[in-house]
Amino acid sequence: MIVIGLISAVAIVALHFGLEGKDRWDKVRKSLQEHRKKLQEVAIDEQKLAGLLSIVPVAEAPVLEEEQKFLFRDRLHEQLKKAGIKTEPLTILAARKKSNFPYKILRIRCRGKCKFEQLLSFLATSRENPYLVGIEELRIECDTKKPPEQRKDVDIDLTVSTFVKLPELKPKK
């Protein structure tokens, strides 16, 4: 009798906790199914995603000035070279801090000669530069003494900018 009573008590306790666990498991599975349905609703077609990503400019987080100026200059030089623009050496202008802004702004100035189509090609692909923030200044000059069909050669003066991370200040002890 005692053995049957103990077995019955253990069975009742196991059944009680087992049914509670099964109820929790069922709730979790149902919640998981609901979340998977929501995720599928949010999922986007691969072609649409590729189209959206093609119009979004690439960006990299700014780093300290010494590293950022070389990254930015090298990438800008690659883009100019790819577009076929012949430039003088790029000039790195002093970085400046704007008030209430967490980054410095570093500018690079570029002067060169190219065909107008090459300049347009460079401008169209400029958003591929992950360090480029903006084109601050662009001056285009052509020789007006030449006939109109020979005015495709232009002199450019271009200033572009990037953000530079400020060095972290060490707390005073």
Query: How many helices in DSSP terms?
Result: 4
Instruction: Extract low-pLDDT stretches.
Output: none
Strand tally is: 5
Structural class: alpha+beta
Query: What are the secondary-structure elements, in order, as H or E?
Result: HHHEEEHEE
Distance between the termini: 77 Å
Q: What's the alpha carbon Rg, rounded to whole Å?
A: 32 Å
Shape: elongated
Mean pLDDT: 86
Strand content: 25-35%
Percentage of residues in helical conformation: 40-55%
Major pleated sheet:
5 strands, antiparallel
Describe this structure in words.
The protein is elongated and about 115 Å long. The longest helix has 41 residues. Strands 1, 2, 3, 4 and 5 form a five-stranded antiparallel sheet that branches. A hairpin with a 5-residue loop joins strand 2 and strand 3. Helix 3 packs across helix 4. It contains four helices and five strands, in the order H-H-H-E-E-E-H-E-E. It has 173 residues and is an alpha+beta fold.
What features would you highlight for this structure?
173 residues, alpha+beta, five-stranded antiparallel beta sheet, 4 helices, 5 strands, 46% helix, elongated
